[in-house]
């Protein structure tokens, strides 16, 4: 076998094409070396593109998200009146409850950050602070997407290069856990509402009791399927791998196969904890705006509303009007304080969605998609 030294830089001509290759890392190679084993020299254009993506994408996303949030808030007719009620609550006797609702936002996103940490540990260890920033940035980026599906991509930009696509896939496990909690709690609340609150003559959104019963059966079936999928992820992946297109990208989903049922149960409990925080926030804000409903009945109405929001495709930026209508349909069965009901829906939208999205858009400013390599 003949070993010959290679030049530090060589010109390769194939037909009419000219390619510059940088093989300074190779001191000797077998004489049968093929051109494609050499390392292609980085051109200035690639470097400039990386610089652009690193230092300009964050600010561009920040401006776009900030403008989108501003425009949508301006378009919501109930926001101004609700904001006035929220401001007046700071000077009223319900101040402590209002401050508790705001403080629970930190607990809410803290639980979600820890859950994301547990999901990502299979591909990369992430500090809690970084996970918290990722969750808020995901909230900002998901704000303009249907049912906030863009959240996973917003979080993934805080992962290292090479882990981002797998991070998006692993986030699906956390989303599925949250959906299971929403469906289970919503189904129980729907049954309670059906037999304890609704009368034979009352309807919600034009649904007769017959259609409501059919909806309950459909949600129950969907919940069972979601639970089976969640605790049998390996079966689901093996089934999906039979699809040729998905089989080619098995590398991105294989980490989902290794989840133990104890890990999945822990993630499910964290999702349930976050759900309880949501419900408590809503109950406190109902009291702030003098919507006097028995706490158990109100909690059931909140669970049904979350179920509807999970089923019906909406964009978070534009869902305030939809939230208001659903709130009036549900809480209107138990209270005539329509102003307080709408103000509660708007308050939750501002405190739980708008403020975290603004904070997340600020964190996006610091994102660097590429890291300098020595």
UniProtKB/TrEMBL annotation:
<feature type="transmembrane region" description="Helical">
    <location>
        <begin position="295"/>
        <end position="318"/>
    </location>
</feature>
<keyword id="KW-0812">Transmembrane</keyword>
<feature type="transmembrane region" description="Helical">
    <location>
        <begin position="215"/>
        <end position="233"/>
    </location>
</feature>
<keyword id="KW-1003">Cell membrane</keyword>
<dbReference type="Pfam" id="PF03706">
    <property type="entry name" value="LPG_synthase_TM"/>
</dbReference>
<dbReference type="InterPro" id="IPR022791">
    <property type="entry name" value="L-PG_synthase/AglD"/>
</dbReference>
<feature type="transmembrane region" description="Helical">
    <location>
        <begin position="267"/>
        <end position="289"/>
    </location>
</feature>
<feature type="transmembrane region" description="Helical">
    <location>
        <begin position="354"/>
        <end position="370"/>
    </location>
</feature>
<keyword id="KW-0472">Membrane</keyword>
<protein>
    <submittedName>
        <fullName>Flippase-like domain-containing protein</fullName>
    </submittedName>
</protein>
<feature type="transmembrane region" description="Helical">
    <location>
        <begin position="168"/>
        <end position="195"/>
    </location>
</feature>
<feature type="transmembrane region" description="Helical">
    <location>
        <begin position="330"/>
        <end position="348"/>
    </location>
</feature>
<feature type="transmembrane region" description="Helical">
    <location>
        <begin position="90"/>
        <end position="111"/>
    </location>
</feature>
<feature type="transmembrane region" description="Helical">
    <location>
        <begin position="51"/>
        <end position="70"/>
    </location>
</feature>
<keyword id="KW-1133">Transmembrane helix</keyword>
């Amino acid at each position: 076998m003949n070993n010959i030294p290679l030049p530090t830089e060589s010109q390769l001509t194939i037909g009419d094409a000219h390619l510059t290759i940088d093989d300074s890392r190779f001191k000797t190679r077998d004489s049968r070396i093929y051109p494609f084993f050499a390392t292609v020299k980085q051109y200035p254009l690639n470097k400039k593109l990386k610089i652009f993506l690193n230092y300009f994408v964050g600010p561009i996303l920040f401006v776009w998200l900030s403008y989108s949030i501003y425009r949508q808030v301006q378009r919501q007719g109930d926001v101004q009146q609700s904001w006035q009620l929220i401001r007046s609550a700071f000077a009223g006797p319900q101040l402590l409850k209002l401050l508790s609702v705001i403080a629970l936002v930190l607990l809410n996103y803290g639980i979600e950050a820890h859950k994301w940490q547990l999901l990502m540990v299979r591909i990369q260890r992430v500090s809690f602070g970084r996970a918290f920033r990722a969750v808020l940035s995901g909230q900002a980026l998901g704000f303009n997407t249907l049912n906030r599906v863009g959240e996973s991509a917003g979080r993934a930009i805080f992962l290292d290069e090479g882990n981002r696509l797998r991070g998006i896939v692993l986030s699906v496990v956390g989303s599925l856990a949250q959906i299971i909690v929403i469906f289970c709690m919503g189904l129980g609340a729907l049954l309670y509402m059906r037999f304890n609150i609704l009368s034979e003559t009352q309807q919600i959104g034009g649904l007769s009791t017959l259609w409501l019963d059919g909806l309950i059966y459909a949600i129950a079936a969907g919940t069972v399927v979601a639970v089976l999928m969640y605790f049998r992820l390996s079966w689901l992946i093996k089934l999906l791998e039979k699809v040729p297109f998905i089989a080619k990208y098995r590398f991105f989903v294989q980490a989902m196969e290794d989840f133990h049922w104890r890990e999945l149960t822990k993630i499910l409990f964290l999702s349930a904890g976050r759900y309880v925080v949501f419900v408590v926030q809503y109950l406190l804000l109902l009291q702030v705006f003098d919507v006097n409903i028995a706490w158990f009945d109100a909690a059931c109405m909140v669970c049904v509303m979350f179920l509807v929001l999970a089923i019906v495709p909406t964009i978070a930026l534009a869902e305030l009007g939809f939230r208001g209508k659903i709130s009036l349909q549900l809480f209107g069965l138990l209270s005539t304080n329509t102003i307080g009901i709408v103000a509660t829906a708007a308050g939750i939208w501002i405190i739980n969605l708008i403020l975290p999205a603004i904070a997340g858009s600020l964190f996006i400013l610091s994102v660097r998609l590429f890291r300098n390599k020595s």
